[in-house]
Amino acid sequence: MMRHFSILLIILLVGALLTTLALAEQPLKGTAGSNDWWCSVQKNIEKYLGKPYALGAVGKKSFDCSGFVWRIMAENGIILKRTTARKLYMCLPNVPKDQYYDSGSLVFFDNLKHIGIVNDQKSFYHAQTSKGTNLSRFDSYWRQKIYGFKKIPTR
């Protein structure tokens, strides 16, 4: 009985991972590099700036870092299962090095414990425990904590 349960659990986990990966590979009407798409993303981000941080929250009144990214993606037609920064990093496509700081890339920090959305080469949006949702600079504090970059999945 326990063996059957273990096999079923493995099948469910693999299915969830494959679903997430399939969503990440579908083409988007406006790509992460298009101005129309980024303008839409920025409008959604701006309406949530200044909201307080709350662990596990996905908005609209408060957010944690991955909940903030999830909400912004969902409101721009990119539906993913709500998950942690670590799991998102494992599932999403890589960003070529010359596109790391392109608007709309996802940036991961602190050994995959934090996530944000790149605004430009100098700044990124995120939900921070001390400041809530905000635009932060890629200063020396944040640059030393960068773990990697990934593409926002497209549909």
Name its key features.
single chain, 155 residues, alpha+beta, endopeptidase fold (from Nostoc punctiforme), five-stranded antiparallel beta sheet, 5 helices, 5 strands, 18% strand, globular
In short:
The protein has 155 residues and is an alpha+beta fold.
Class per helix and strand makeup: alpha+beta
Number of helices: 5
CATH domain topology: endopeptidase fold (from Nostoc punctiforme)
Largest sheet: 5 strands, antiparallel
| CATH superfamily descriptor | endopeptidase domain like (from Nostoc punctiforme)
Q: How much strand content do the residues show?
A: 15-25%
How would you describe the shape? Answer: globular
Low-confidence stretches: 16-31
Considering DSSP H and I runs of 4 or more, what fraction of the residues is helical?
25-40%
What is the distance, rounded to the nearest whole angstrom, between the alpha carbons of the first and last residues?
39 Å
Number of domains: 1
Total number of beta strands: 5
Q: Spell the H/E element sequence.
A: HHHHEEEEHE
Give average pLDDT, whole number. Answer: 83
Computed CA radius of gyration, to the nearest angstrom? 16 Å
Structural notes for this entry:
This protein is an alpha+beta fold and 155 residues long. The protein contains 5 helices and 5 strands. 37% of the residues lie in helices and 18% in strands. It has a single domain, classed as endopeptidase fold (from Nostoc punctiforme). Strand 1 and strand 2 form a beta hairpin. Strands 4-3-2-1-5 form a 5-stranded antiparallel sheet.
